[in-house]
Design brief:
This protein has three helices and two strands. Strands 1-2 form a two-stranded antiparallel sheet. The longest helix is centred in the first third of the chain and has 25 residues. 2% of the residues are buried.
Length: 94
């Protein structure tokens, strides 16, 4: 690390950053749909640009889960909802 006060220059790889932002927004959409429709919270996951995995607290996978989630997510995308950025205290978020 350079000493405090040293001038540095940085750059953001825009294509990668944009892909990560899109993936992150998609995970919020997915977690919201699964919570709304199945009452299940996220227990883990992983994200790379345009590729991700999300784990949910489901005692068992309901019949047709994948198709129901895909249809609900597609409907939310078609609804073209605005993305709002908010910061909530953890207690309030839950």
């Amino acid at each position: 690390m350079p000493p405090a006060g040293t001038a540095v220059r940085g750059a953001i790889e825009d294509e990668r950053r944009t892909a990560l932002m899109r993936t992150h927004s998609g995970l919020h959409l997915l977690s919201g749909v699964v919570y709304r429709d199945f009452g299940s919270l996220v227990t883990g996951g992983n994200m790379e640009p345009l590729e991700a995995r999300m784990d949910f607290n489901l005692p068992e996978v309901p019949e047709g889960f994948k198709d129901r989630v895909a249809e609900a997510c597609a409907a939310e995308v078609l609804a073209d909802r605005a993305i709002e950025v908010k910061t909530l205290p953890r207690e309030q978020a839950f």
